TrEMBL record:
UniProt cross-references to Pfam families, sorted A to Z: HTH_3
SMART domains referenced in this protein's UniProt entry, alphabetically: HTH_XRE
Alphabetized PROSITE patterns for the sequence: HTH_CROC1 (PS50943)
SUPFAM superfamilies (UniProt xref): lambda repressor-like DNA-binding domains
GO MF terms, alphabetically ordered: DNA binding
Keywords: DNA-binding
Listed name of the protein: Transcriptional regulator
Domain HTH cro/C1-type residue range list: 20-65
Amino acid sequence: MAKLPFTNDIRTLRFLAGEMTQGDLGDRVGVTRQTIAAIEQGKYSPSLEVAFRIALVFGKPLEAVFQWETGSD
């Protein structure tokens, strides 16, 4: 499987939010813990709606949670 062209800081943000679990974040966003784990690991690209919901939980703009990798391959 090819690496997704973006990274995220979800794990760090969860830690800074009182060590929020993947399950807690999933419940607040409306997805499963497994989905959060896959997004964190870069194995799954969230929908735009889910990405915005994740950012909203942390009170951050989307670009503070997800970063687009702009490199030549």
